[in-house]
Write a structure and sequence with these properties.
heterodimer, A: 291 residues, mainly alpha, 2 domains, B: 297 residues, MetI-like fold, two-stranded antiparallel sheet, 13 helices, 74% helix, globular
């Protein structure tokens, strides 16, 4: 009898410990979730506080009872936020579109076409993956300046329309498409280009979408190159725009309006992320590097 | 065959052109720049060749400050972020309900513009004449003295910097570690349970070896990323990082190239090459260590 008691005792302790473990885990996870979410909450909250209310709070308030959208109106009228957004949109779409064409053609050549020197060129391409951007940006800056392309979309876009890593990623995917499809297409007299567009691209769509998403995130957040190459406000992207707003915008420090701008800038990618959650997370674990 | 050969090159042409112009040529040119003394951007002339640029950079107090800052950031953030990410990932992989929600939340910093969110961090930590800021409010609650984290003492600025870097790099690490943990074969754990192995021992002897390739991958990319730290510093302290005393090596390169203190591509090139050598050395050391301790199955 006594033995079963201790056995039950042991089981109960184990269950209690397991429950304690579980609770600790959830507390820890919630804590980190709060740390991650808090800045987002704070920017939203501050962006709907009125200028007067914000500046009279010596002790910051965690809620606001009189929300206002005035800051959003200010953000679009006092500084050219709409312009920054439009520029970033153009930059992102153009860069991504051109890059997709360039890397698809290159990946196709590596994966399907046979020509002398292919392996050598491919090895050289792979070697380029190790070159950090910081090393080549100096000359690129000089090149673009000498070509008189500062403060232009061409200057912004051209240096970032190829990525060896994405060529590699796509080539691996293209190589998995069975050869028999290619020969069947050849027998039917299909041209290489048509085969690429009608067969390869549809089959490898998931990888292509992954690359597009990663590139869009990269473009939307790019800061260093646009900062070097633009000093005319008409060509600023959002990152430079926000820096400009911080240093010169809104006259006296109008923090609620700045936060409204921050919300507007952050929103597109967050929405994109919430829609394509699975794709983005799978894509980043395959090809992301940030961190 | 002859036609096919040409065609292959034709498909590669755009990629080769772009890479040639914006990667291969600059790569050679950066070394040329770094050995040309007193190069002038406007007239495109230089006075001699030699190692002067490297000597100048290595004796520049701003550069030494940047090196010190960068090394501190690397040493603090890489182990801390990897450790915390591991802790969170272990927690995340041990629960079922709410896991997806937590994963989604944890990933958010990855898709946000670092300049924009950095501004929020600045406001949370900054002390102005109107308000002490939220973080100082918390410090007050716990009975501490308020500190200006953005333009105050060095350690305070370094603290915010490291905190923000960790906040930014965490999503990537949690994502990779969680998927590595979830892909460990469950039968190993069952076997260990049958043998009555303790939880800590299971973690050390099964989990860690199984996910060691991912950990080392994260450590290596973490080192590389932290050495190239720049945008996050600008987000917190503004574009004039030298004045804030928080410049990084990459920041030094860009400052030498452009901006108020710019116009010296030779110094910038020399600094960039020094950075590249540092990163290459550290990566090689990491690879050597990892090849000894990593288990691949």
């Amino acid at each position: 009898m006594a033995k079963t008691d201790t056995y039950q005792e042991i089981e109960r302790t184990a269950a209690r410990r397991k429950k304690g473990m579980r609770t600790t885990t959830y507390i820890l996870l919630t804590l980190w979730a709060l740390i991650v979410l808090f800045p987002f909450y704070w920017m939203l909250l501050t962006s709907i506080k009125s200028y007067g209310a914000y500046n009279s709070e010596y002790i910051p308030q965690f809620i606001t009872l009189s929300p206002t959208l005035q800051n959003y109106a200010d953000a679009f009228s006092a500084v050219p936020l709409g312009r920054y957004l439009l520029n970033t949109f153009i930059f992102t779409v153009a860069t991504t579109a051109i890059m997709m064409v360039v890397i698809t053609l290159a990946a196709f050549a590596f994966a399907r076409l046979n020509f002398r020197g292919k392996n050598l060129v491919f090895t050289l391409f792979l070697a380029l993956m190790m070159i950090p951007n910081e090393l080549v940006i100096i000359t690129n800056f000089a090149t673009i300046t000498n070509m008189n392309m500062r403060n232009s979309f061409l200057g912004l876009i051209l240096p970032s329309v190829t990525s060896v890593f994405y060529i590699y990623l796509l080539k691996e995917n293209f190589a998995q498409v069975p050869d028999s499809l290619y020969y069947a297409a050849k027998v039917d007299g299909t041209s290489d280009l048509k085969y690429l567009c009608k067969v390869m691209v549809p089959i490898c769509r998931p990888t292509l979408i992954t690359i597009v998403i990663l590139k869009v995130i990269e473009c939307w957040n790019s800061y260093v190159w646009p900062r070097l190459i633009t000093d005319d406000e008409r060509y600023f992207l959002v990152s430079n725009g926000i820096q400009e707003i911080r240093e010169n915008g809104f006259g006296r420090e109008n923090i609620p309006a700045m936060m409204a701008a921050v919300v507007v800038i952050s929103l597109p990618l967050i929405v994109l992320f919430l829609i394509f959650r699975e794709k983005i997370m799978a894509g980043v674990s395959r090809g992301g590097t940030k961190g | 065959m002859e036609k096919n050969k040409l065609k292959g090159w034709l498909y590669l042409l755009p990629a080769i052109l772009f890479l040639g112009c914006f990667m291969v040529y600059p790569l050679i040119d950066v070394f040329v720049y770094s050995f040309e003394e007193s190069y002038n951007f406007a007239s495109q002339t230089y006075q001699g060749t030699g190692g002067f640029n490297f000597a100048y950079v290595l004796h520049d107090t701003y550069f030494l400050q940047a090196v010190k800052n960068t090394f501190l950031m690397v040493i603090i953030t890489v182990p801390l972020s990897t450790g915390i990410a591991l802790l969170i990932s272990v927690g995340l992989s041990s629960i079922k309900p709410l896991r997806r929600l937590f994963q989604t939340v944890y990933f958010l910093p990855y898709v946000t513009n670092t300049l924009a969110v950095g501004l929020v961090f600045m406001i949370l930590f900054k002390k102005t004449e109107y308000t002490d800021g939220l973080v100082n409010l918390l410090i007050h609650w716990f009975g501490g003295e308020s500190v200006d984290f953005i333009s105050g003492p060095y350690w305070a600025k370094m603290f915010v910097m490291c905190f923000y870097i960790i906040w930014v790099v965490m999503p990537f690490k949690i994502l990779l570690l969680t998927s590595a943990l979830l892909s460990v074969d469950q039968s190993y754990y069952n076997a260990a349970k049958v043998d009555g192995t303790s939880g800590a021992r299971i973690f050390r002897k099964i989990t860690l070896p199984m996910i060691s390739p991912t950990i080392f991958y994260l450590v290596i990319t973490g080192f590389i990323g932290a050495f190239k730290e720049y945008s996050d510093a600008v987000a917190l302290f503004g574009t004039n990082l030298n004045a804030a005393g928080m410049n990084t090596i990459v920041g030094y390169v860009y400052d030498m190239l452009y901006g108020d203190s710019g116009g010296y591509p030779s110094y910038a090139s020399a600094a960039a090459i020094i950075l590249f050598v540092i990163v290459l050395t550290i990566t090689c050391i990491n690879l050597l260590i990892s090849s000894k301790h990593t288990t691949y199955n």
